[in-house]
Specification:
There is one protein chain. Strand 1, helix 1 and strand 2 form a beta-alpha-beta unit. The chain is elongated and about 80 Å long. It contains ten helices and eight strands. The chain has a four-stranded parallel beta sheet, with helices on both faces. A four-stranded parallel beta sheet has the order 6-5-7-8. The longest helix has 23 residues. The chain starts with 7 loop residues before the first strand and ends with a helix. Helix 8 packs across helix 9. It has two domains: 103 residues, Rossmann fold, CATH 3.40.50.2300; 147 residues, Rossmann fold (3-Layer(aba) Sandwich).
Length: 271
């Protein structure tokens, strides 16, 4: 079938954020890549009057409504109004509520706020991931005062993997490399010590890690030379001592082990 010349309109309606309905819809739309769809969100729909307005709007453009309403009054209203205005609706949560109710022999709580809490956690992780990417490798250092945690260390001490690990748990984390000949941003020394953790590594382990990376990327120079690494680590230790930051040795630790130790250090610094 040929694609439509103009985008078709689809409404996402929810008494919470609508994220559940949106994700289901986007997943289904991947099977119709040749069609343009204008998705219009109607979040926080909590009254019958709002439902009526949305259905009337949808009727004017022959739109489809996908909803995840859990409040019984609103679910009935959107069903009634869709019949009056001949609007097609799809309920993404109703069948699940019905089957779970039968199976558990209990009635659902009908609390959209529960979905809000789930989605708030989801959006927090997304925000944290965006922050980690934007503040990776010393970028946008002037904004590090917003971070929950800042990781510092020489190259190949797992700063970025740890930043992403914490971001998936909702932490706003930035990281700053300690580089020979380059003074770290002043803001690092103004942050509370509980929010900065330095990552260290043994010289022999660092040489191995860098040699592998150098060969893989076909890099040239002294990136993995023993003398250069020794100088870098001494320089890093001087800066770490000046900042008075706690340290975590990454020589043989997994990301999970290091994250656990970092949390202990942060908690100890706070209390």
């Amino acid at each position: 079938m040929a694609a439509d010349p103009e985008p078709r309109v689809l409404y996402i309606v929810s008494d919470a954020t609508g994220e559940t309905a949106y994700r289901v819809t986007r997943a289904a739309l991947t099977q119709f890549k040749d069609h343009l769809v204008d998705i219009r969100w109607r979040q926080g729909t909590r009254t019958v009057e709002q439902v009526k307005e949305i259905v009337c709007e949808a009727a004017q453009t022959n739109a489809l409504i996908v909803h995840s309403l859990v409040i019984p009054e609103l679910r009935q209203a959107i069903l009634d109004e869709s019949r009056i205005h001949s609007v097609t609706i799809h309920d993404v949560i109703g069948p699940a509520l019905m089957h779970l109710s039968d199976w558990l022999e209990d009635q659902p709580a009908h609390r959209p706020a529960v979905l809000d809490q789930i989605n708030e956690s989801y959006f927090q992780r997304i925000t944290a991931l965006e922050y980690a990417v934007r503040h990776d490798d010393g970028r946008n250092a002037g904004e590090l005062d917003r971070a929950d945690l800042v990781l510092v260390g020489v190259s190949r001490t797992s700063k970025t993997p740890l930043s992403i690990y914490f971001a998936y748990r909702g932490w706003m984390v930035g990281n700053v490399p300690l580089v020979m000949g380059i003074e770290p941003p002043d803001i690092l020394f103004k942050l509370p010590r509980s929010r900065v953790v330095a990552l260290t590594v043994r010289a022999d382990r660092l040489a191995t890690l860098r040699s592998k990376r150098q060969n893989r990327l076909k890099m040239k120079g002294s990136y993995d030379s023993t003398d250069a690494i020794g100088d870098e680590l001494r320089h890093a230790r001087e800066i770490i001592a000046r900042g008075g930051w706690p340290t975590v040795d990454m020589s043989i630790k997994s990301i999970e082990e290091a994250a656990s130790e970092i949390l202990e250090l942060v908690e100890k610094a706070l209390y």
